[in-house]
Specification:
The chain is an alpha+beta fold. Among the domains are: 209 residues, Immunoglobulin-like (Sandwich), CATH 2.60.40; 134 residues, Neutral Protease, domain 2 (Orthogonal Bundle), CATH 1.10.390; 99 residues, Immunoglobulin-like, CATH 2.60.40; 123 residues, Zincin-like fold (Alpha Horseshoe), CATH 1.25.50. It is built from 27 helices and 30 strands. The strands form 8 sheets. It has an 8-stranded mixed beta sheet with strand order 6-5-9-3-2-12-15-14, with no helix packed on it. The chain has a 5-stranded mixed beta sheet with strand order 17-18-19-21-20. It has a 4-stranded mixed beta sheet with strand order 1-7-8-4, with no helix packed on it. Strand 18, helix 1 and strand 19 form a beta-alpha-beta unit.
Length: 875
């Protein structure tokens, strides 16, 4: 018995719980949820009333539930009310059984229960602190609504919800809809919210605490109120969000040409490292650093642009994801890919002066790099377990999916693509849809050839590498093409994949730029360029819109680099990103990348200079210790002048591009080049801040402290540690903890790992103490040794939730290994421990594969790297 309620043991003759998905016998048609919540308490209580449609006679109703205790349950049908017995269902399910089967038709289930506030992870109903204030927030995607209330916790169950929240009278509460009624009774405030439009459980949301509201005006055709909801005292820091959110929302509505679906648009700042943002209908939540200006009053362009991008992503979900929701988690990619696509599109159209289409190339080349692995999944990977659900939220879903959508938008045409999106959303509004539904809409816009090409990117892993060669005969020029799967040296991928690739080529003809497109649907093909004569250069991915690598022979590549001023900045960034991927995969000599980086390092464009930093970043442990000073000298020579001109602190009158470049370029020169002037400058600035709290630039505060720490001693470590422990403002505390993770002396690293285990800091901000030492060959083994020695104790401290277990990320402590022995060690230690951990098996597979690829790459590239630095000037 639990609280007087009969419990049927699953070990007896009771029915077996579902394995993954709920049976289709019963479905919800409406929820009414009443919760009593107090941030000062570690638990909460609730009563959920679920209107049901019984599709097949059944004597047991299975629900999702995680760490909930049912106090009572009744099932009502045809005027008869019966108590239900609890059937234990393991981690994710609870059964409620009656003695006679329910008949077909309507029924009602009422469940009273209690649950636990998550103290360690931003999932379920979780605790967050801001100074002495305490708050409760929610994060239910993917499968953590079941930790807040018993429910049908699958995206395909999409029905209206009515929420009532009882909270301490001094606090306030917000949810997906506006407040319908508010009252106070016996020291508790009762908020009754308007019923929502149909929502899946993962989009239900609420927040409780001492909150303030900043008016953001109204948005869209229906003049929807926009508010920025922040912890008390933070209203002045929400000024920028209040200024731009309505504009973003209105622009999105104009693109979709469908009215914003909800009655308000609250944007909620969550303190204490929530870790991202979430598209809850009408109540979007953000890590506070995304939405709030830094505490010292300055709001740098990097943060403002970051908010615009994240807000565009989450608000695009109000249509693509919320209004129309995936039917099952295998279509997670469609929600997230499209939101990323819209984020990029909206910001580029709204703020062309920001040049974000150049920045977007970073997402495309990251996806291409992620896609190199044999263990990588396809975009629309089937979801057959909870670990598959956890794995669905990765670079393939977000960055690759967005890059593929962008490619096909260009292929179909922007307006035709927009109309297909609108048709898809209109057809499935307030309901669910699948990838096939979206493909059908594309078919209507662009024909079957479009969907066939689209499927070739959705339904197989990897990325195409298109080898291109220019042949000129008389007055005719022809680009020959062959395609294969891009594979790093040492890859175990099959390599048999073939894509239907939309290929566009750019070249110069008589001083005028030309572009011509074709479709490469087989292993080889060609494109005869219009016009006469042989072009001096050609680019195999015009605009760098295509999700493929262009591989050139040496003369064609050199001609392209020599003529790079004739390419757009986005094309240059895409080209250099692909070359960097090829070099890091062992398909180009690292020395070629280093030579190119030196040519680009002083470029006035921040985008080109950032590409140079990436090209110049090599694994220093590929070099013997005797040659590592020469790599540092190379960095100082190539990047030092530009970095010293920028310095750590903004100059009067400088533009946004210098501010945006500074953290990348100056940090690189200081960290990898150990540039003396920059190291000394960072150390002086950090010590002065510790002495006086004199304001430092928000966008370089972290880089300054990390640089000082990399070269710091025990006395500096003690000062930063004391400051981090005493700090009440999370902006500073998080950066101080990251700085602790940057120390390189072995005894200080071991002290940090002890701090991690001893609970000196909230685990949500403490991970730099574990992962920071991986950056240096001399300390890279220490985190893994700690994990192996204290695995169970560490796992007990890690954040956990129904949707993901953070132990899945622990194999990253082995991820810098670079030998077959390192791969074997990682597999043997983590394999049995992560076999049943959500997200664990794939995480381990990819770490082990990366280690093996590193070993193969080292064999292939080390001699080239050694020869390059042996020939370079010494120190």
């Amino acid at each position: 018995m639990i609280l007087g309620l009969l419990v049927l043991s699953a070990a007896a003759s009771s029915p077996q719980p579902p394995a993954l998905r709920l049976p289709a016998d019963v479905a919800p048609t409406r929820y009414s949820l009443a919760l009593t919540l107090d941030p000062a308490q570690d638990d909460f209580s609730g009563v959920v009333t679920i209107s049901l449609l019984v599709r097949r006679p059944t004597a047991i109703v299975w629900l999702n539930a995680h760490h909930l205790k049912v106090a009572s349950a009744t099932l009502e049908q045809g005027g008869l009310r019966r108590s239900a017995a609890v059937v234990e269902g393991g981690e994710h399910f609870v059964g409620l059984a009656v003695d006679e089967p329910l008949a077909l038709g309507e029924a009602r289930l009422v469940v009273a229960y209690t649950g636990e506030v998550n103290q360690k992870a931003g999932a379920g109903i979780f605790l967050s602190r801001r100074g002495e204030d305490r708050f409760l927030f929610t994060q239910f995607e993917p499968i953590d609504a079941r930790a807040a209330f018993p429910c049908f916790d699958e995206p395909g169950y999409k029905v209206p919800w009515r929420l009532t929240l009882r909270v301490p009278a001094a606090l306030t509460a917000v949810s997906n809809t506006r407040v319908q009624n508010e009252s106070v009774e016996r020291g508790m405030k009762r908020f009754v919210f308007h019923e929502t439009p149909p929502l899946p459980s993962y989009l239900v949301a609420f927040a409780v605490g001492p909150l303030e509201f900043v008016d953001g005006g109204t948005a869209c055709r229906r003049k929807v109120p926009v508010r920025i909801v922040v912890p008390r005292g933070d209203a002045p820091r929400a000024r920028h969000a209040a200024q731009v959110t309505a504009e973003i929302l209105t622009r999105l509505e104009a693109y979709f040409d469908i009215p914003y679906p909800y009655d308000k648009a609250d944007q909620v700042a969550i303190p204490r490292s929530f870790g991202g943002a979430m598209e809850n209908a009408g109540l979007v939540t953000y890590d506070s650093e995304i939405i709030l200006a830094p505490p010292q009053g300055e709001d740098p362009p990097q943060r403002q642009r970051g908010y615009a991008s994240v807000a565009a992503h989450e608000l695009a979900h109000q249509w693509f994801g919320d209004l129309v929701t995936m039917a099952w988690w295998n279509d997670t990619w469609l929600n997230e890919s499209f939101a990323t696509f819209m984020e990029q599109k909206l910001v580029a159209d709204w703020k062309p002066e920001w040049g974000t289409r150049v920045d977007d190339q970073g997402g495309r080349t990251f996806a291409l790099w992620f896609d190199r692995l044999a263990s990588v999944r396809r975009i629309d990977q089937p979801v057959e377990s909870t670990t598959d659900i956890a794995n669905a939220f990765d670079g393939i879903t977000y960055q690759k999916g967005a890059a593929v959508l962008t490619m096909f938008e260009r292929f179909v045409g922007e307006e035709a693509f927009r109309l297909a999106v609108r048709a898809h959303l209109t057809a499935h509004a307030l309901g669910n849809a699948s990838s096939q539904d979206f493909i059908d809409a594309l078919d209507a816009a662009g024909g079957a050839s479009v969907s066939a090409s689209f499927r070739s990117f959705l339904q197989q892993p990897g990325a195409p590498l298109v080898r291109m060669s220019l042949a000129c005969e008389g007055q005719a020029a022809r680009v020959g093409m062959t395609q294969e799967r891009f594979q790093p040296v040492g890859s175990g991928a099959s390599g048999e994949e073939t894509w239907t690739v939309p290929v566009c080529v750019a070249w110069e003809d008589g001083g005028a730029r030309q572009t011509q497109c074709t479709t490469l649907a087989s292993k080889s093909g060609s494109l005869v360029l219009r016009g006469k004569g042989c072009p001096a250069w050609f680019l195999g991915n015009a605009g760098e819109w295509g999700y493929y690598y262009s591989a050139y022979d040496s003369p064609a590549l050199e001609a392209l680099v020599a003529n790079r001023p004739k390419l757009s900045l986005a094309e240059q960034a895409g080209l250099f990103g692909e070359l960097d991927n090829l070099a890091r995969a062992g398909r180009l000599p690292l020395s070629d990348g280093l030579k190119l980086a030196a040519r680009l390092a002083d470029d006035p464009s921040r985008f080109v200079a950032q590409a140079a930093v990436q090209l110049a970043s090599v694994r220093i442990d590929f070099l013997p210790a005797s040659l590592r000073p020469r790599y540092r000298q190379y960095v100082r020579d190539a990047f030092g002048p530009h970095a010293r001109r920028l310095g750590w602190v903004p100059k009067a009158g400088e533009g946004d591009d210098d501010r945006l470049l500074r953290p990348d370029l100056v940090r690189f020169a200081a960290h990898e080049g150990e540039e003396p002037e920059l190291v000394a400058g960072a150390t002086g600035l950090a010590r002065r801040w510790l002495d006086t709290r004199e304001t430092l630039p928000a966008d370089t505060f972290g880089a300054i402290f990390e640089t000082a720490a990399r070269h710091g001693d025990a006395s500096l470590h003690a000062r930063i540690l004391a400051a981090a422990k005493a700090e009440k403002e999370e902006f500073f505390q998080q950066r101080l903890v990251r700085a602790l993770g940057a120390f390189r002396q072995r005894d200080l690293v071991m002290q940090n790992l002890s701090l991690l285990m001893d609970g000196a800091f909230d685990m949500r901000i403490a991970t730099p103490l574990l992962f920071g030492p991986l950056d240096d060959p001399d300390t890279a083994r220490l985190p893994l040794e700690t994990v192996k020695a204290r695995y169970d104790a560490l796992v007990a401290r890690l954040p956990s939730a129904a949707g993901i277990d953070y132990a899945a990320f622990l194999p990253e402590t082995a991820g810098t290994g670079c030998s077959s022995a390192d791969a074997t060690e990682a597999q043997e230690f983590f394999g049995p421990r992560l076999a049943n951990v959500n997200g664990g098996p794939r995480s381990l597979d990819q770490v082990v594969e990366r280690i093996k690829l590193c070993a193969a790459r080292k064999d292939a590239q080390q001699n080239d790297l050694v020869r390059f630095f042996e020939a370079s000037p010494g120190t």
